[in-house]
Amino acid sequence: MYGLDAISANNGWQLAALGISIVFAGLIVLSFSISQIHRVLEFFDKSSGFSQRIKKAGREKNISEPDVADSPLPAGIKESAFQFKLLIKHIGEPFSLPELIDFSKKCGLLHSHLRINDLLQTNLIIPDGKGYFLWNYEVEKTLRLFDERGE
Amino acid sequence: MVNLLIEFLSNTGFALAGYQNIIMLLVGIVLIYLGISKCYEPLLLVPIGFGILMGNIPVIRDFGLGIYENGSFLNYMYFGVMHDVYPPLIFLGVGALTDFSAMLARPSLMLLGAAAQVGIFITFLGALAIGFLPNEAASIGIIGGADGPTAIFLTAVLAPRLIGPIAIAAYSYMALVPVIQPPIMKLLTSRKERLIRMEEPREVSKREKLIFPVVGFLLCCFIAPGALPLLGMLFFGNLLKESVVAERLAKAARTSIIDTVTILLGIAVGASTQGDIFLTSKSIGIFVLGASAFAVATAAGVIFAKIMNLFVRNKINPLIGAAGVSAVPNSARVVQIVGQKEDPTNFLLMHAMAPNISGVIGSAIAAAILWSFLGG
Fold this sequence. Notes:
The complex is a heterodimer. Chain A is mainly alpha-helical. Chain A contains 6 helices and 2 strands; from the N terminus they run H-H-H-H-H-E-E-H. Chain A has a two-stranded antiparallel sheet. In chain A, a hairpin with a 5-residue loop joins strand 1 and strand 2 (about 135). In chain A, helix 3 (about 75-90) packs across helix 4 (about 95-105) and helix 3 crosses helix 5. Chain A is elongated and about 85 Å long. Residues about 65-70 and about 145-150 of chain A have low confidence and may be disordered. By secondary structure, chain B is an all-alpha fold. Chain B is built from 21 helices and no strands. Chains A and B meet through helix 1, helix 2 and helix 3 of A and helix 7, helix 8, helix 9, helix 15 and helix 21 of B.
């Protein structure tokens, strides 16, 4: 049997129509889900900032303790700090900045120079006086950067 | 003594060779030549070509040498093909190599990858029309997905005897993407459309790139569970890459593992390509349908991009629809080259990577759907 008869005899039309529909439906669902990921993440970032402000309103301010809600750090720096701390753990301390930049590029992080500059300016990365650099755990604790991550 | 000598000589390849062995050995040599001299998909065509040589040396039956004889070396290598072990391991490496940013930045472009999979189903209908059985037609149709591991994965389940010609057709046409696609792309688009500049994609955060493999895997496999081996390994490989903490594993996946499996797969597929299947009219049908599958998939992607432009504010350059054919990254490169011929300052490569990568996911889902319809 050949031609259109062969297709009909083997339910070809139904299989093809259903198959194409399922592929489209699957990728539509996936693309919609992906499009919502960054919005959900923004919502969680905002709500964690909101809950910090609620906590701040409910307690007395201690001037000697800098508060995360008062921290001048934007959300982007926190994410950079988390990622670069992981990289630094991997390459070990003390480290050189070129090594850190190279490794961050290999791991697919964008704008490495800019982000490392931000971390230098906030003293999360500090020089060790011998041409290398260290992660500043004291400043990390002070800023209480990773409380919400349980670190 | 003379009898021993005569028996020895009668067991040599010279005595056992038939015309089919000779022709297949020549086919193997041609594939090796194409891979080395012309650089047509050399990582696959060289192992496949040499595998054809190994599999078509005339040997005496029941001597434990042939690929279909239990316990032979080639039979053990063939195990990974027959039981769908190699293709998912290749996808592990592909996931560890791939950056999904382009797709995450503009998810709507994934629909172009879906549109290109129309080529699979139209070729399936064409194969039925010329007399192939449904299982065989599905295995031929999947060539239109332009994804070698997926084609081998599905064919091993539905039509294992056709693995040889289907794999050779799939990888040969993947190498010919720069030849097959441009005329179709130019035919279906106007100059004005080819000059469309697309909006810069937004920056994708690391957290999105970490969440996507898990979410993508769960969604895809809930919709099409048959895609579990392929997409599971693809997304796992990507998670290893993006997590940073497992960089050692990601590096192994995209280097030593994928290279080792590629060698084993190529040799096994080549050795399984025997003259009694390859030198038939079925093979000619497979090669003709394979070419049409690529052409239809390219056309479907481009046409769908033009349809999308009727509804979107930020226009899509319809050339990137051709990248829905999941020959990563060749078809995205072809889009870049064709686009730059019209406007050398128009960089379409990163935009084209979105449908290119979604084509990989789409072809795996299509394979799972065909398996669920026709398997068992």
